[in-house]
Design brief:
Blueprint lengths: L10 E3 L2 E2 L4 H10 L6 E8 L2 E6 L2 E6 H6 E2 L1
Antiparallel strand pairs: 1-3, 2-6, 3-4, 4-5
């Protein structure tokens, strides 16, 4: 399952990031979004969703949400 299919308010564990873009992987890693870390979808929005990772909240688009496996 990917992040775009997650239920709002439920905590999930990131299984991996499915992308070949090294820059995107580095960006997500800097946010704390990597394998084994908890992630919560705060709300789904048109064109993306708001997620909570560690102590921060981030708005990510649908393509990025589909690349994050939970």
């Amino acid at each position: 399952m990917d992040l775009s299919e997650a239920k709002e308010g439920e905590e999930y564990i990131v299984k991996g990031v499915l992308t070949d873009d090294e820059e995107l992987n580095a960006f997500l890693f800097s946010l704390g979004c990597y394998s084994g870390e908890p992630i919560t979808v705060v709300t789904h929005r048109k064109g993306g969703c708001v997620v909570s990772i560690k102590d921060g909240r981030y708005n990510i688009d649908t393509d990025l949400a589909k690349a994050i496996s939970i």
